[in-house]
Amino acid sequence: MYTDLLFYIDGQWTAGSAGNTAAVLNPSTGETLGQLPLASSDDLDTALAAAASGFETWSATSAFDRSGILRRVAALVRDRHALMAECMTLDQGKPLAESTMEAKSAADHIEWYAEEGRRAYGRIVPSRHAAVRQLVVREPVGPVAAFTPWNFPINQAVRKIAGALAAGCSIIIKGPEEAPGAVIELVRCFHDAGVPKGVLNLVFGNPAHVSEYLIRSPVIRKVSFTGSTAVGRQLGALAATHLKLTTMELGGHAPFIVCADADVEAAAALACALKFRNAGQVCASPSRFYVHDDVFDLFARRFTELAVQLKVGDGFDPSSQMGPLANARRLMMVQELIADARDLGATVLTGGNRIGATGHFFEPTLLTDLPKQARLLNEEPFGPVAPLLRFNDLDSVIAQANSLEYGLAAFAFTRSLKTATELGNRLQAGMVSINHFGLALPETPFGGIKASGHGSEGGTEGLDAYLTTKFISQAGL
Ligand code: NAD
Q: Model's pTM, two decimal places?
């Protein structure tokens, strides 16, 4: 069921030159799934040379033809989604239903970019002289270096690959070493659909070595990273030194505000679905629940009842609604954050413990009575933990919601149009979702502000990220 663990460089599948490998583990069982090759500097040089020549080929291919190839990729992804989903559940742990949804939606993202790439319009600016024509043209930025994480192995990779290719760029992507299987199968679809060699290259390796080597290279013109704020700062600083454009999709700590006039039942159901999806390892996951005093008890009771009913288990068990945490680091971090909250007097409404000794399973956890300084309220939890807090007036809850350095997603429930408008306007987040979950569609921008990064993936903005503007002023016609 699992895949051969290889790089894809210059149209070839290869185990690289160094012979260094890392074990890929199943987070549900602890078993080793395979050995992943790790790139040497020589492998990266080969990938850079391939991306440089791939860019020559691909940027000279018409947007119409690029679109046709990307549509073929989307069709292959739809046909093969089951294999990608199985790989993801094996090495990342999420329930097969979640993996399947993620793999299928990759085809939607590719189709969106296949269409949008044909609309990289420029414009003509009226000139001051009859004999002058002023053109604004949009051009692909050049070879891209992209770094994607393990929480959504397909989704994080496909948005970068499809965006870059639709714009006419070539790309070297460093996939997630801990969950590489699905990305390899995704890249296979691009190869089999006829993407020319060198246009798309996939490597794995020591993240710090690969990112530093690629970002420094004069071949690379654009850096796109999804991961933690701490790593984003480092890569952003390096990219700035070399004057490379960046898209940074970093961490978040999303407020989820339940007003006194909210549909509390609907809010609790969505809170539970969003909080425990992918075991909470989602950058846009709600992670600070601010609930109005009038409805706090009702919301807390319903949210707790729903969390208690969740079935946690191996992602291949069809009854599992939440899988394990993806790696031992997350398990340790979630335990630390809960211990800190408990030490500071927090009340555990449900959960709080590891499940069993095999795999990284953890109970869906709800806490309340946390003081402001609790780490859980300040550090991104990235796990199945929900802190519940009370509020009384809108101004103070907005101030609290905006008080952290993060600004990725925010959620709110209210039946008042006035309050909804005010929340939409005043919450400091790249994405605000009110009375439902409405984020991460191919046609809408996804991205953060403040320490959650900059730039968007998805929407027309997702294509813009891979284009530069050229002005041509032409006289003597
Ligand atoms: P981490 O900070 O070590 O790594 C985060 C991601 O960045 C991983 O995919 C890792 O391989 C990669 N990375 C690490 N150092 C790198 C480097 N020098 N160059 C290039 N890539 C590098 O943390 P982690 O334990 O793997 O993940 C947990 C944290 O990461 C969470 O707190 C969360 O904030 C963040 N994260 C965010 C997203 C997201 O969607 N924005 C996804 C995954 C992880």
A: 0.97
